[in-house]
Hints:
alpha+beta
Amino acid sequence: xxxxxxxxxxxxxxxxxxxxxxxxxxxxxxxxxxxxxxxxxxxxxxxxxxxxxxxxxxxxxxxxxxxxxxxxxxxxx
Length: 77
Protein backbone atom coordinates (compact mmCIF):
# COMPACT_ATOMS: atom_id res chain seq x y z
CA UNK A 1 0.00 0.00 0.00
CA UNK A 2 1.49 3.39 -0.96
CA UNK A 3 2.23 5.99 1.69
CA UNK A 4 -0.25 8.81 2.07
CA UNK A 5 1.36 12.24 2.04
CA UNK A 6 -0.20 15.45 3.27
CA UNK A 7 0.66 19.10 3.58
CA UNK A 8 -1.38 21.30 5.91
CA UNK A 9 -1.61 24.52 3.91
CA UNK A 10 -3.62 26.47 6.48
CA UNK A 11 -4.89 25.73 9.97
CA UNK A 12 -8.32 27.30 10.61
CA UNK A 13 -9.09 26.10 14.12
CA UNK A 14 -9.80 23.41 16.69
CA UNK A 15 -13.33 22.10 17.22
CA UNK A 16 -12.53 19.97 20.27
CA UNK A 17 -9.69 18.32 22.18
CA UNK A 18 -9.57 14.90 23.84
CA UNK A 19 -7.71 14.00 27.06
CA UNK A 20 -4.89 12.30 25.11
CA UNK A 21 -4.19 15.52 23.21
CA UNK A 22 -5.93 14.48 19.98
CA UNK A 23 -7.76 17.45 18.45
CA UNK A 24 -10.58 17.68 15.92
CA UNK A 25 -9.36 20.39 13.54
CA UNK A 26 -10.43 22.25 10.43
CA UNK A 27 -7.54 22.69 8.01
CA UNK A 28 -6.82 23.23 4.33
CA UNK A 29 -4.88 20.10 3.34
CA UNK A 30 -3.22 18.88 0.16
CA UNK A 31 -3.36 15.07 0.07
CA UNK A 32 -0.80 13.26 -2.10
CA UNK A 33 0.13 16.50 -3.87
CA UNK A 34 -3.41 17.17 -5.07
CA UNK A 35 -5.31 20.45 -4.90
CA UNK A 36 -5.97 21.45 -1.28
CA UNK A 37 -9.38 20.78 0.25
CA UNK A 38 -11.07 21.72 3.50
CA UNK A 39 -10.44 18.90 5.93
CA UNK A 40 -12.15 18.01 9.22
CA UNK A 41 -10.55 15.18 11.21
CA UNK A 42 -8.84 14.18 14.46
CA UNK A 43 -5.10 14.74 14.68
CA UNK A 44 -2.55 13.51 17.20
CA UNK A 45 -0.36 16.10 18.88
CA UNK A 46 2.28 17.17 16.36
CA UNK A 47 0.18 15.88 13.44
CA UNK A 48 2.17 12.63 13.27
CA UNK A 49 -1.04 10.54 13.14
CA UNK A 50 -4.57 11.24 11.98
CA UNK A 51 -7.99 9.69 12.36
CA UNK A 52 -10.73 9.29 9.80
CA UNK A 53 -12.16 12.51 8.51
CA UNK A 54 -13.89 14.29 5.69
CA UNK A 55 -12.53 16.47 2.91
CA UNK A 56 -14.63 19.09 1.12
CA UNK A 57 -14.17 21.22 -1.97
CA UNK A 58 -14.84 24.94 -1.60
CA UNK A 59 -18.30 24.44 -3.11
CA UNK A 60 -19.10 21.56 -0.75
CA UNK A 61 -17.90 23.58 2.26
CA UNK A 62 -20.09 26.53 1.25
CA UNK A 63 -23.11 24.22 0.92
CA UNK A 64 -22.36 22.64 4.30
CA UNK A 65 -22.34 26.10 5.89
CA UNK A 66 -25.74 26.83 4.34
CA UNK A 67 -27.20 23.57 5.61
CA UNK A 68 -25.82 23.99 9.12
CA UNK A 69 -27.01 27.62 9.31
CA UNK A 70 -30.50 26.49 8.27
CA UNK A 71 -30.52 23.74 10.86
CA UNK A 72 -29.41 26.13 13.62
CA UNK A 73 -32.08 28.67 12.69
CA UNK A 74 -34.80 26.03 13.09
CA UNK A 75 -33.49 25.17 16.59
CA UNK A 76 -34.63 21.58 16.21
CA UNK A 77 -34.02 19.21 19.12
